[in-house]
Each structure stands twice: as structure tokens, then as C-alpha cells.
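G., the chain you wanted modeled:
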Amino acid sequence: NKLALDEQAFVSLLSRLIGEVRSLQNNPPALIPQEDLAANHVLATLEPHKVENGGPLKIRRESFTPGRSNLIIEYPCANPTAKYVSFVGSHMDVVPANPDDWDFDPFKLTVDGDVLRGWKSSPR
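Predicted structure as C-alpha cells:
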């Protein structure tokens, strides 16, 4: 099984993730991010690629606080006896955004040709 970038699926996932940004803002005590919302979209997208469905990925969700999941995704080496280490750190929460400071809605993905705009679609 090979994983390939499906541009339409990527933009669709990015749109759903940006659509959750209001609930992912992190500024306690007023704003507690709910990473489960983002994790659910990622899990649904990767579902066909899970080992249980014939794919190569081993996926599990870890939650130490309700609503604040982490995803652990393993892509095992083809040689099960080979030693390998791989790590990619990522987070699903974001710093708060004030929509009044933007010239577009930061809580909605805007696609303009090959430019994607939305809170955390890329560094500002």
C-alpha cells in the first residue's frame, strides 16, 4: 500500500480542520482547546490506511484529559526485524485569533487559485 497525496482530499481535510479552529484556541482559563475535534477528522481520513483495514498504519488515540487527544501513528518498516526510529511532533491547538485583525475570515478556509488562507494553514 502506497500513500499518495490526493490534493482534493487534502484541501477538504484542511477545510474541516480550519473550521474547528475556534474550538482549538488555547488560552486558559478562557479557552481550553478541544483537540478531539481535529483528531476525529484526521482519524476519519486515515481510516482506510489502518492496519485493520489492510493499510500500513498503526493508529491509536491517547487522551490524558477529556477532549484533548493525541494521535500516535506508526508506519512500520517493511523489514519487521530492522531497527528504526521515526518521530514527527505536531499539535492540534492554536493560539487565539481575533477575526477583527484579519482581512478574511480566519476560521474558514479560503482557496484562491493555489493560495490557501485560514488560521494555521501556514505561518502568518
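The chain has a mean pLDDT of 87.

Shout if anything looks off.
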